[in-house]
Amino acid sequence: MNTDFTYDVIVVGAGHAGCEAASAAARMGSKTLLITMDMNKIAQMSCNPAVGGIAKGQIVREIDALGGQMGIVTDRSAIQFRMLNQSKGAAMWSPRSQSDRKRFIEEWIKVLSHTDNLTIWQDIVVSLIIIDNKVCGVKTMLGIEMKAQAVVLTNGTFLNGLMHCGKTQVKGGRISEPASYGITEQLVELGFRADRMKTGTPARIDARSIHFDEMTRQDGDHDWHQFSYLNTVHRELKQMPCWITYTNPQTHEALRAGLKDSPLFNGQIQSIGPRYCPSIETKIVTFADKEAHQIFLEPEGVDSNEYYVNGFSSSLPWQVQLAGLKTIKGLEDVVLYRPGYAIEYDFFDPTQLHHTLETKQIRNLFFAGQINGTTGYEEAAGQGLVAGVNAHINVHGGTPFTMGRDESYIGVLIDDLVNKGVDEPYRMFTSRAEYRILLRQDNADERLTRRSYEIGLAAGDRYDLLCQKQSACADFIEYMQNTIVHKGEVDGWLEQIGSTALHEGCKISELILRPQVNIKTLAEVLPELKEKIENISDEIVESCEIQIKYAGYIKREKIEAAKLQRLDQIRIPDGFHYDEVQSLSTEARQKLSRIRPKSIGEAQRIPGVSPNDISVLLVLMGR
User: How far is residue 171's CA from residue 162's CA, in Å, rounded to a whole number?
Assistant: First the structure.
């Protein structure tokens, strides 16, 4: 570390967004500094010890395809892996993994410690150095001025963080960790719009006090699926089950008795909470007629007795939480490690950002993660990677790196934030994406690795793997499209699986279109096909089957995406005066003036901008 503390990029905060941002900027060649309050809690899993899930798993695969680290770290720390939604179409498949919390941190520290151009500093940033509307560095609690050409803020829940457990309030960004002060106040004074959000976490309990024999066991998958596309990364730890139990009327009665002391219902908490991850007290009030809510007990690690009570997030007094837990089957003798709590923190309206995640007001200042109003490790990490890449590009030159809604879930996430803003903590769902069939978890490498390789983030070995995969898929699909299955060859088997016999010979690819047929089961009755798939990977087989079965849907979505791209290519001049266009609706003029979209496509996605407003803009742009 130079004594003058001068860098290309400074990243503030070493959560999931900060780690990806710092890693990306450094690996692309920027001299990078990562500042964290506690070097022992880098990439801390503040809430549940798991990565992925519905749509979130797709984001992690995209991060990996781009050359990020979350997928690799998750695989190496995994203690249970599951592919969710396999009973549905491939567009809905979502990987999810339980992680050993301690190992997850250790793996991230190992990654960062072995990244060239990256230095870590333990301190608290109290203000930014801004000259002529451009960020030039940061000032820390230790009184040090650190210079940089770009700064990425990934402050998580630490900006003016305030924790609630019943009537008790404790200042902090996470349990036993201090809050951060000064940055919000400085940015608000400069004209930024800030507000407050709330999130929460459940109690942690002692495994030795749990009656697992009274619960339902849930094991993970034991097949080839994982998060990383790299063939050198694998699950290394003992695989562990989760356990399922339920609340009951007695639980709800015990919790209702404490609602008068609930920060959520007595006015103590005023900020916006997550709609899709409600606290248990919110559940029993909102769904008062429901007699039971599912509870998952998730292990925190292979060498830990700590369990996470998923589905029981709460800020009720600890005595009320404990009383409620003791009414649940299997938890009658439960022992707490710590109760759940809620936390309020500052965030900034994300419509103040460009799609690169650079702020519109201050050049070379980037926001990523919960500071933008999102929730979730995966959403934060995806933003962090994009911010880190663009911070490097701003310093060293190059074309800004952004992704369209047809390219990635990360692109959908950022486009939603920048164009729509947030009125509650933003969580990604498959339903938010118009082009789910294009944005599958299996093809993230095909969508993104080439682009990342071209800008210098994805390494050559990753790009070579992609080329090998695409070549193998092309050869195998060509084989299936040119190989005939003759009438009578598989008729008996088809009748056994409830499908009709062949009236005449057909190609293997045509047979696979049948819902009852898949490549591996068909190979059991076609020796030549079986021999073929024995010489290629399961990943290739799955990818080819998806491409064949969904070819029609994929083609249709590509046509629709192309229409969107045409509107995104019609640029709106910087400084365009919407207020002077009386043919636009009042709401459109106000929102367009505030958000400043760069294209007609972006303008179309702003809530309150009507099709008629878009027609007016198209005329004004000469189209």
Answer: 4
